[in-house]
Q: What sequence folds into this?
DNA sequence: CAAATTCTTTGATCCAGATCAACCTGATGC
DNA sequence: GCATCAGGTTGATCTGGATCAAAGAATTTG
């Protein structure tokens, strides 16, 4: 889990920091792909990609939240990744994916055809390098999540989730206050991300609220009242394991 | 989780397939690093790297098993990766790691200094590409494990673990029979990998044995008697989600 | 605005797996 | 050979979260 958002620069043509595609949008690599860019939108709940689909497009999330998830034979599912604005779908050399991608909220994607994108990657070493960096970030995040799923209590899972979400969110434009943030996911979706049930998620949220660690007015708007207490509840040690 | 072992070729100089460093050892990229290569061995239980350590070396596992693990403040730990022979430690651009690496059995590593290795990566596009591929394989494996940790029952976890282990192992030289294999990990280590306790691991192993799915003579030697039943017990659907 | 629908909360009960506690078994050393 | 010790098994009990159930909000629809 990374604290710092990458120092990505806003692409001149695009209402989004292309965190994944390009950490230095000012270098204009992506301009080579201008004209091949299309926006697609998906309604909350809609599938974006199914497991096994051919990846015709790669895409940046412009707005909204999407989720990567895996399902067992009998229907139990587990989210294995969250895609927030600036996150990227698609990797060089991978024409298929092994998970479903679903719109968690209404989502806008900025899509590029796979072919020219791969050519760009091949021709531009530092873009390739940047994509490697991002894959490794995802790997780190996945491993943090493995620790959470394997060993944390329900309370610790919720606290970790809130902390992660605030960190990924609170520099964004839509941040309404210091540690206030919008929670665009339902209890059920959060449960799927944390390996819990929705009832347990609800109970733990309310217990953190009762203890004055967080508070929420509107059901979608949270404030972290006591950041230190929240961190304490995560079970992580002091620095939270951040590398960069 | 990948079924197929990569078609890596044995390096002329090295008693190991350099699965990670080089899928085409016959192209001799690694020969550029000859002379910088050192072997290091670690006794079972010994730490290899601590979280936060600077990575002076990158390394291939030649023999034995090592584990990546993460620890909570109060000592609970979770393995977040297994390193079997031919697996690789160290990524281009990452000078530090965010987990501990420990020898699970006695381990031999083939180490290269980080600096010349990174230069090799920079100068050799298809090695860089290969490393990206491997990072993505690890990411896939991590996500499979997230599903396991978050949603599978103890029985399903054990069955999945055995299946994974057989698949990663049974083409190796040391494989004694068709589906017979050596289990170099203790119940405790397996528990740490699966997010269980050692007692539960023991009970589930014995219950699978009682049902005739597996059998074991020596405590370290297992045979999968009924592969179909084993797969059935994993909770995964038919093809197990393999991409390549 | 009422009705329908989708989320959320809250309570009661249950159970898979953790925890606690012996005891067993095989390997290593002296 | 016996002692020690690290791992493994097996049983009894406990408990965190799941499951089942029902009753509130909020939001959407007509």
A:
């Amino acid at each position: 889990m990374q604290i710092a958002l990458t120092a990505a620069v806003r692409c001149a043509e695009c209402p989004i920091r292309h965190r994944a595609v390009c950490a230095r949008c000012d270098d204009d690599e992506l301009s080579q792909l201008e004209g091949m860019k299309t926006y697609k939108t998906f309604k909350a709940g809609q599938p974006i990609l199914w497991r096994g689909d051919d990846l015709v497009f790669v895409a940046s999330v412009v707005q909204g939240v999407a989720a990567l998830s895996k399902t067992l034979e009998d229907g139990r599912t587990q989210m294995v990744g969250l895609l927030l604005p600036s996150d990227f779908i698609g990797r060089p050399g991978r024409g298929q994916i092994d998970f479903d991608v679903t719109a968690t909220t209404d989502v806008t994607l900025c899509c590029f055809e796979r072919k020219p994108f791969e050519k760009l990657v091949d021709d531009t070493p530092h873009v390739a390098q940047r994509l490697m960096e991002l894959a490794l970030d995802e790997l780190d995040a996945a491993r943090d999540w493995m620790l959470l799923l394997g060993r944390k209590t329900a309370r610790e899972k919720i606290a970790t989730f809130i902390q992660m979400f605030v960190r990924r969110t609170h520099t964004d434009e839509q941040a309404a206050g210091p540690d206030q943030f919008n929670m665009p996911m339902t209890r059920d979706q959060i449960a799927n991300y944390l390996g819990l049930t929705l009832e347990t998620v609800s109970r733990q949220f309310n217990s953190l609220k009762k203890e004055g660690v967080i508070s929420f007015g509107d059901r979608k708007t949270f404030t972290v009242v006591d950041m230190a207490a929240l961190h304490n509840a995560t079970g992580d040690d002091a620095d939270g394991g951040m590398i960069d």
Q: What stands out?
A: Chain B has two domains: 25-147, 152-232. The mean pLDDT of chain B is 83. The CA atoms of residues 1 and 144 of chain B lie 7 Å apart. Chain B touches chain A through 47 residues (CB under 8 Å).
